[in-house]
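Q: Can I see a sequence and its folded structure?
A: Here is a first one.
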Amino acid sequence: MISLTDSQKIGMGLTGFGVFFLIFGMMLFFDKALLAIGNILFVAGLSFVIGLERTFRFFFQRHKAKATSFFLGGVFVVLIGWPIIGVLLEIYGFFLLFRGFFPVAVGFIRRIPALGSLLSLPGIRTLVDEIGESNNMREMWLNSEVTI
């Protein structure tokens, strides 16, 4: 079992509540207040879980500048009162920021018995295969010589 510090436990709670408020705000037709609370809680929770310095280093890497600007710009747009545009910007930035994590997450989900069989269905499988492969892995596979 993974041991968490008290601040990491608080961060997990804040992140969980942030995701809840974001989903709930979208379900209630993009309620500005709920989305704003969700954004603040999510970013604060992330800071508690991985620490302020690592959060800053994660968001402000040179190769993630575009992703960070879309994500944090979306948070700002939600806070000033345009929730639909802000959420779209956030979603795009989120996918750009965490695209390196998607292959790991898909591989983990495929090992779960019920979800793995769901991801193996014909229509879903091609979509998940595209999401689950990163560009670097695809390029390595295409450039490698396979001998049988």
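Q: Show me another, different protein.
A: A second, unrelated one:
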Amino acid sequence: MTSGGVADHSDNSGQFILTLGERVNALEIELTSLKSKLNDKNAVRKCECINPVLEKDPLAKNVMDDTNRHKRFLTVPTSTDGDKVAFYGYVSGDELASGRQHIVDFDVIQTNIGNGFHTLSGMFIAPHPGLYVFTWVIQSTWTGIVYTQLMRNSEVVGEVVSDSTHTNEFHSATGIVVTQLNQGDEVYVRRNPNQPSSGHIISRDGYRSSFSGWKI
């Protein structure tokens, strides 16, 4: 007689006996079943616990941790929005308006999709070619005057003046430019080297001097 494909062997006392080959076969079947269960558990744990990006690139974890600690100094793209690009930043506090050709220091960045804006240099560097819109707002202190230019590499593409010299009020000026950029082009706001500014660039709660841009 057989049961489940295993021969039924009994000795004279009626005890059940398996041959050596049958024992090996039964152990192999049990081992295969255990391996299958273990692989299923590992697959679930891997799916739940491992970020596929970090698995492919172990250095990515260090980059992500560093990005979280130093959001002001992003140097690698973190956006998952394809070639979308947008940024917004402002000057953290009042600064002297004098000094020709100095780049305005927009040192507080609140939006930086595509990581094109660099606070250390004050420049936006185009991560993708395309048509972009840029706008900047400059607040001038009373009795002061501030001339600024929007630069694309070494070319002037926009100019504004915020003039408070004839009033005891804070005045602001806003510029907006639509321009075509190549990848790697640099865009920034500087004081006009041909016109002397005076007073202060004002940036406070309710009076922010700011710079923003986005890809159309």
